[in-house]
Each structure stands twice: as structure tokens, then as C-alpha cells.
Amino acid sequence: MPQYFVNVSSRPLLHTVGQSPVLILGGIPNEKHVLMTDSYFKDFSLVELSIDSCWVGSFYCPQTVFTATIYDAIATESTLFIRQNQLVYYFTGSYPILHESDRSSGRWVRVLATECIKMLCPAHFHGNGSEYIMALTTGKHEGYVHFGTITDGQVSFEMLPRQQSVCEQIGVDKCSIIWAEYLPSGRQLLLLVEHKHPTAVNYCQVVRYNIAKDDLEILYTIPAFVPEAGGLAFLMILGTESYTNTSMAPKGMSYNPYNNLLFIWGNFLLQSSNKQNFIYLADFPKEQSIKYLVRSFRGDMAIVTETEEIWYHVEGTYHVYRLSPSQGWEAHVSLQVMHQSPFYASSETMVTLFYEGRKLYQLVYLINDQQGHLVKRPVPVEEILVFQQHKQYQLEMQGGDPVIPSDNLRADYYFYLASNWQSAGGVHIDMASYGKIYDLEAEFELPERIFLDKGTQYSFSVFLSGQGSSLRKQGDLGTIFQLQSQVAVGVELADPTCIEASVEQKILINRRSVLFSITLKDREFCYDQGISGHHLRKTSVMVNVVGSSGYCFQNTHQGPRLQGNLVVPVLIGCPPGKRLAFDITYTLEYNRLQNKHYFDCVHVDVEMPCFLFRDVFYPFFLIQDLVTGDSGSFQGSYVLKVVGGGPTPSGLRDYSEEEIYRFNSPLDRTHSRIWTTSTETTTEDLAFHILSHRSSGIQWLCLENSPCYDTIPQSISAPEFFFKVLVSNRAVDNSTYCDYQLTFLLHIHGLPLSAKRAVFIFVVSASVFLGLVVLYIIICFLWPLMVKGCNLLCWKVNNLIVSESYYTYVSSSGMLSASSRRPSMVSSSISTRVEEDKAERSQTLGRPSLT
């Protein structure tokens, strides 16, 4: 890798927190290269950007130096933003083609082409389904902010304020916007505005701009000079304090929506929880100047100065600790080099500083044997703080080093002896890696975040062991024996109007310990209704053992861990993964119990059971948590509407809004209603019924103008109909913040026929039946005659056949010899006579008797 990072200044890693699939880092001098990673720099790529880099300097864009350096690089969930000189680009397409210069060149889209952009400010959190970015201008539009919105990969910019510039609205001739922070909860911008005066001293103000209302408000005026703290760790700025001769030079702001803490930084550090009253943190020296802040949004942050110093601060406290350079840092680095660690070298340059979860990391460029490479390594915050605490204890003690019960501080000495082959007996055991771990189960810690639905609560306990005089007896001899704890636990809420906390203390005498039971509860004030996991209100709770921040550590097999200060994000709203489901099992059971019977369809479908039309229908629903797997009965209110239907599943039709109103509203007068209920609770406009699990049930109507009226049976069984049902609790349920909506199919059978169709079917059925009866009677009376006629017809047919056969025979025998002619004639006459006698006899028998 080329030595792009040798002796260069570090730069911040800007991205949307928890959303960006890749991270990019610019700042390589005179190169159109960025570092890109999708694993927080466990692996990375050096990518050259294919952008045009055209020069558009003019009289309204006061830029005199042209460079290829990528100054600002911001990663969002769906796109990337970069700034080169005064030009702004964003990337469209898939990230793998960034490596291909011939394909990626057309993917970089230039925006704000006629503007001179001096800085890009990121919005660390998304809101309302979009991500945001702020572009600060100079030149002709100085005093305005270009507010960018990224929704589904589409980028749009709007110049704010919409009417007058910030300078005009605050009543100054010339000003400059130094920094912008976006507040997603109220769609507001916090602007750090510098007033420029040619003769007087420049000063800065914090201005709040409401995007929806397009109005502006001055929140705070920053003092012109650094306050005189007088040896205090912090100072509340009231305007009555004394000041030094050092001017305040603000450079930026940083806002944490979880704890509402706003920091203004420059050659000072100001902290505020309401954006109007500020505290000056005096531990940070006014001789240094902050270059950028790195926040974990979990309760701590790191500070990088212009001279590449690293400072550390626990949010909500008043102390700032220098990590590097320090004696603890130098001792740690020297030990790591002695261990020949691949993460340290004698020559190194910090590229950036960032948080991954709760852990602080450095990206550094190391040079070993004239070979350079980038390395990601953790910053030993706890080890350095432990070292500083020990050194401070040394200074306060007289007579040298204190007696420390742990052998950890002597481990370095024994390692030094082993490294020089001077260990006793020539044997050395590294105690840091030699240990017996008895319990490898997950540690008892607070969750990563807490979700609170409407009126719900979350409880946890803090167990503290007392030592020395932390627990003492209260009262004199002869009084009731009680213990008084010297250990105090404070619970700090970022939004006391949104959540409340209760703390119960219990002293365990036999264990010399104190148990604090803490309960957080939502106050039902700060949220309306929303979709599951969307637009959650961000807040936090900090549990602090008084006086322990930065001083209490726990030794683990992974090293020391900071204790005494717990910050947990709390998200108010509808937790992610929750949904409404139709409880078919309990609905069937309850309907069978209430109606005393249950008749399913002729053709049973296990996935979609039938319900009888004349029975009262009692629906029940479940709340399913897809994250935890929990499930429970829905106890809230809801509105039920039939929004579609058809006689078969394939013949379903969605109804229009006007039809939905007619089919479901109790105000309908067109005889179109599908169902009704005896529940009298309705919406505010009286348009629909409001139901709950305690409702009296639904009675099906299917009036004459409804789609289920006069349904034609599909078979010999009774008519049936499929209803598409919509259930929603929007604006009618006070039990939850979740905006549930469920659509499911309901199979109803046994629908009645209309009067006309019933009469028609009766007439047709009766006619067919009577016709069959008459036909049967006719057949019974005519059957003998029909049989006799058939027999006579058969006899005559047979006679005709015989006669034809005889005449045919006689004609064929006409040519006989003379000698046989006479006997033949005699025989023929005899035969003829015989036949005549038979015929006469038959006629005689066939005549009716006269007697």
C-alpha cells in the first residue's frame, strides 16, 4: 500500500449509526482515494473514485486552492456522499462496482452544481423512514443550509430557511454557519452561527430552526472568552463568572438523542441537557483545540485534538481524561512492543478513531522495517485510567508506592526478568493467561436497549458489595440495630416527562451488600401510535454509583472493565417484531361455548374453518412478538371492517371506500350492511363500531343491497361466502403504542336465500315434483294397455313375416315335373284346407259368447 498515511492528520469516520452497510474514509492528501470497509476495518479496500473533479471557482465561490483530496466522506444506508473542493457527489449503484473505474464513473452524481459547499455535516440517526445530510455553503448563499433527504435511494436537497437567510432573521449583516445538527424527533436543525464584525470581536450563537414551521429561535449565546474555573472540574455558566483572556473558538457541535446532551467544542468543551443552560468542563485545557468528537451513543465519547491527542469523557459526568499522550499510554505501548505485538510499532500514524459497539478502536498506519500497513486496534481506555488512578494515589501518599493487594502491578516486573532470562529457576508463568475460569455463562448485564410500550415497565437490580465503612450501624447501644449504607445509586433520566423511575434499596446484612431494585415505566405522554419498530422516541437511563465514574474497575480475564456507570438506551413506542394475528383456536372454542354448537362446512378445511351465518360471531386476536417468540391475547380496542368478499376464494373482490362505508357503518340507510353488533361504542364520527375482546359479538345481516345478499348456491348445500376482513386499532386503542392492521379471510356458510329466490326455487321444485308424480300415475294406469298393444303389434308383425315367407316359397316352387304335379296339387289342396279349418276355429274362439 502506498504511504498515503505517513504523517498525515487523522479524520473522523462519518456514517449513519447502525444503518450503513459500508464505511468510507477520505482525507488522503492530493488523491482521489477512499478507504472502504464493510467490517469496521477488519478488512478494507483502497478505492480510487472516478469523478470529474472539474473546477467551477468564480467570484461568488471564494476558493483559491484546488486539490484532489476527498475532504468529507459520509456513508448512509443507501448511498455515499463525498466532497472534493466545493463539489458534492453521491453514489448510485451497488458497492462492488466502486472498484471498477470504467463502470463506477457514471454512478457518481453531482449535486448542488451552482453552490459553493464548504462542509458536509452528517445526521447520525435516520427518522421518518429517511436519512439526512446537511451541506453548508459559502459565497452567495452563505447563511443558508442545503438540507438533503435520502429516501429509498432518491436524493433531494432543499435550501433552508425558505424565506430569509439565518443572518437576516437574527438581525446581523454578515454571518457564517459553522456546524449543523439534525434533531429527528422534532424535525429541527441546530445551527452554530458565527457573527462576523470587522471591528468588534466575533461571537457565536446556537440557533434552532424548525423545518415544518420555517421559523428560527436563538437558544444560547456562547461567551467570547474562556471562563475562569478556579480549580473546579466544571463551572455552570450564568454570566456572572470571571473569564480569561483566551478567546473561545467554536468549531462544532454534537448531539445525542438518547440522553439529550449537546456538546459545543473548540478550544473548550461545553455540555448542556436542555440546549439553553451550559456547563463548562474545565478539565480540558484551553490551550488545546478539538478537531472532532467520537461518540458511542452509549454514554461515553472520545475527543481528538488538532495535535492528535486523545481524551475520554463519560457523558453525564464532569471529568475529562487524557489517554494519549500519557504515562499510562507510554507504559502500555512499551509493554506491547516488548511483547512484539503486531498492533504496535515505534513509528505510527493515527488515521481515525471510532467506536464499534461500546469499544473504542484506532485505525493506525504502522511502519516496521520500512514496510507500512494499516491496523485496527483497541484503545486500552480502562488500563490507562487504572494507571492514572494509581499514579494519583501515589502522589497523595507519602513514603512511595502504596500497598496494593493485587499482584497485577508486579506482573510487568516479572515479565521484564523473564525477558532477560533472569527469572528465579528460569521459569516464568504469565499470570494474565494462566487462570481457571469456573463460570463461562453470559454475564448478568443490562440489555443492549430497552423497548417500552405504552404504560409498560422494565425492572432490573443492581447488586453492590460493601467494604470498609461503606456499611455502618445506625444508632447507639440500646436502640434498634440498623445498618446505614454509605453507597448511593443515582438514576438519571434523559426525559423525565416520558419515563419515570423508582428505586428500592435493600441492605443484606449477612452479605454486607446493598441491593437496589430499579423500575422504569412509561408515562404515556411522549408518543402517539406508530408501526412496529418505526419512529421510536429515543431516550436513555443512566445508573450511576455516586463518586465511582472513572474510578471503579472490575478485573476480568479479558482485562479491567469500567464500572459504576451504566447507560442503557430506552426506545419508546411500538417495539419491533410485533404483529396482530387472528386467534382461530380460541375463537372456535369460545364460539362453540357461547352458541352451544358448532357446524363446520361439508368440505372441511383445517386452515380455514367455517362459521355458521345464524350464529353470533365472537372474534379474538393475538399479539405475536417475532423477536422474543412471546404471544398473548390482544386486550385493546379495534375497528372491524369487511373490505372485500366473494362466493369463492378465487372470486374475491375488493370494495371501494364508499362501499366499505355502506357495508360496515351503523349510519347506513341504504340497507347495505353486512353485519351489526349490540356494542354502542363508535368512532368519533360515529361511522364505525369500536370492538374489543369484551364485546357482545357480531351478528351477520347481509341486507338486500349487500354483496352477500341472495347468494346463489354452488352446490346442493347451503350458500356460503368469503369475507375479506380488515382489523385496525388506529386512533381507537389506548392500550398500546402499536398501530396494528390485520387482513384475513372469514368463511361463512348457511347464508339465507332471498324471498324471491326462495319462492322461485320452491315453485320449480314443486313443479318438478308434481310432474314426476303425474307421470308416475299415468304410467301406472296405462301400463296394462301398453303391454297388450305391444303384444298385438308383435303378433301382427310375426304374421306378416310368415305370409311373406309362404308366398315367396310358392312362387319359387312353380316349376315341378309332370309326374309329381298331381300329388303336389293334392297335397297343396289338403294343406290349404287344413289351414282354412284352423283359421275358422281361431275366429270361432275369438268371438264373444252370446249366452
Which terms would index this structure?
five-stranded antiparallel β-sheet; Cation channel sperm-associated protein subunit gamma; Immunoglobulin-like; 51 strands; five-stranded mixed β-sheet; CATSPERG_C; transmembrane helix; single chain; 18% helix; CATSPERG; elongated; alpha+beta; disordered C terminus; 851 residues; transmembrane
Secondary structure blueprint with pairings:
Elements: E1 14-15, E2 23-25, E3 33-37, E4 45-48, E5 72-75, E6 80-84, E7 87-91, H1 101-104, E8 108-111, E9 116-122, E10 131-138, E11 145-151, E12 154-160, H2 166-170, E13 175-183, E14 188-195, E15 203-210, E16 215-221, E17 225-227, E18 234-236, E19 243-247, E20 252-256, E21 261-265, E22 269-272, E23 279-281, E24 290-295, E25 300-305, E26 310-314, E27 320-324, H3 327-338, E28 347-356, E29 359-368, E30 371-378, H4 381-396, H5 411-419, E31 450-452, E32 457-465, E33 471-474, E34 482-485, E35 489-493, E36 499-508, E37 513-522, E38 537-545, E39 552-556, E40 559-563, E41 565-572, E42 578-582, H6 584-595, E43 610-612, E44 621-625, E45 631-633, E46 639-646, E47 653-654, H7 657-664, E48 675-676, E49 699-700, E50 720-728, E51 741-749, H8 755-812, H9 821-846
